[in-house]
Amino acid sequence: MKDYMAPMEGVTNFVYRRAYHRFYHPMDKYFTPFISAKPKKNLSFQEICEVSPERNEGMYVVPQILTCNAEDFIRTAQLLKEDYGHQEVNLNLGCPSGTVTAKGKGAGFLAEPQKLDAFLDEIFSKLDMKISIKTRIGTHYEEDWDYLLAIYEKYPIHELIIHPRIQTDMYRGVPRLGAYEKAVSRLKMPLCYNGNLFSTADYKRITQRFPDTDCFMYGRGLITNPGLVSEIRDGVQPGKAVLCQFHDCLLEEYKELLSGERNVLFRMKELWSYMAVSFTNYEKYAKKIKKSQHLSDYQAAVSSLFAEQELAD
Ligand SMILES: Cc1cc2nc3c(=O)[nH]c(=O)nc-3n(C[C@H](O)[C@H](O)[C@H](O)COP(=O)(O)O)c2cc1C
């Protein structure tokens, strides 16, 4: 069985990955939030941190690229290989955000099958690297999936990570498991399941329905409960003390890396927008955390949450 951390812009950056890897069940792969490949653009300082081996020690990190231009994809992938030693890159065909899809990228690229086919033909013929793809199953209609499967099966995709929602679902509703099932019965390449794995029970439901699936990617469920994969794989919930150490480690790293309280608070509040619900009676603490203007108020609110509440079952 293989477990992957999902790419989540603003959340699963190198700081988060490093702290996670130190305190919780290690992942087999960690995917970076997307890097936009643009003509002649070199990597920004932030992007270099995401992909450099020094900042990602001991972890198998896969850089994710967002583009609909084959030349830009190839150039960025080669740079990631030559300058940072990456042997695998991932193509983002799932981002549903309007600003991305309007430019025909992310899930928006799925609406242009001929262009997508030509793009894949070019990158697979010109790049000597493992190329994995993270995809949704269409843009507006689940029926899109049939023609996408016909395209994907033509290429030596290292691994196809499927988030079985269409673009317009955004993150709403439940994953369309019928579409995932179609992929399982039709495609020969390795598949990875992604979507709404929030608990061990969710994981079991997917493995019962798809016993041949041996690869899972975790996003919001893992940010909400960083002990989720430890629970699934080791049968133990690491508990509140570990969560507290993990939190303190993240806070310290962000304080060192970012300038100004506001930036640190922004990152930490984003995490609490997921994590708070994993505590009993969390509402009033979550409000205080959200309202905090200074690190001192923030730390007081977090300390009282840890001291006065327990992790919910
Ligand atoms: C805040 C946020 C940021 C995300 N950023 C990315 C991204 O950079 N690249 C990507 O492929 N998916 C991104 N995703 C999608 C996740 O990787 C994942 O596919 C999605 O959340 C469904 O999995 P889950 O139900 O386990 O959360 C993002 C999702 C969220 C909520």
TrEMBL record:
Keywords: Flavoprotein, FMN, NADP, Nucleotide-binding, Oxidoreductase, tRNA processing. Its cofactor is FMN. Its EC number is 1.3.1.-. FMN binds at residues 64, 134, 163, 219-220. The active site is at residue 95. InterPro entries: Aldolase_TIM, DUS-like_FMN-bd, DUS_fam, tRNA_hU_synthase_CS. It is an enzyme of class 1 (oxidoreductase). Signal peptide: none annotated. The keyword tRNA processing applies. One of its GO terms (molecular function) is flavin adenine dinucleotide binding. It comes from the Bacteria. Residues 5-291 form the DUS-like FMN-binding domain. PROSITE patterns: UPF0034 (PS01136). Catalyzes the synthesis of 5,6-dihydrouridine (D), a modified base found in the D-loop of most tRNAs, via the reduction of the C5-C6 double bond in target uridines. Belongs to the dus family. This is tRNA-dihydrouridine synthase. It comes from Blautia segnis.
